[in-house]
Design goal:
about 120 residues, mainly alpha
Length: about 120
């Protein structure tokens, strides 16, 4: 009888040990996950801060809306006009002025495509 009770006690202790090991492993996994989540959050915060600093240096706060609108309208138009002047007219002002009639939307679209291509190339 004592052997049976002793073996039952050993089984109970083994089960308790196994349970405590499982709990410890689970706790370690949860701590790892929490550490990874904290690292990701810190990384996102750092990237967000860099982007915010970039935009605040490029766009002054008091006229940020106006500058964004000007960049959205003017930058693609200028890129399209440069493309037309350099590649289409071959750098000849006479051909450039003959081509450039009422082509604001066309130049803007070409410039938009050029800028989006450059941004994609930079990001990839």
């Amino acid at each position: 009888m004592q052997k049976e009770s002793h073996s039952e006690e050993n089984k109970i202790k083994q089960n308790e040990n196994m349970l405590s090991v499982r709990v410890a492993k689970r706790k370690a996994r949860q701590e790892k996950r929490a550490a990874r989540a904290a690292a990701r959050a810190a990384s996102r915060k750092a990237v967000s801060k860099k982007i915010s600093n970039f935009f605040s240096s490029v766009f002054p706060e008091n006229i940020s809306f106006l500058t964004v609108v000007l960049f959205v309208i003017a930058a693609p138009y200028i890129a399209g006009a440069l493309f037309l002047f350099i590649f289409i007219s071959g750098g000849d002002p006479a051909i450039f002025s003959a081509i450039q009639g009422d082509t604001f939307i066309a130049l803007w679209c070409v410039g938009y495509e050029i800028i989006s291509f450059i941004v994609i190339i930079i990001l990839v």
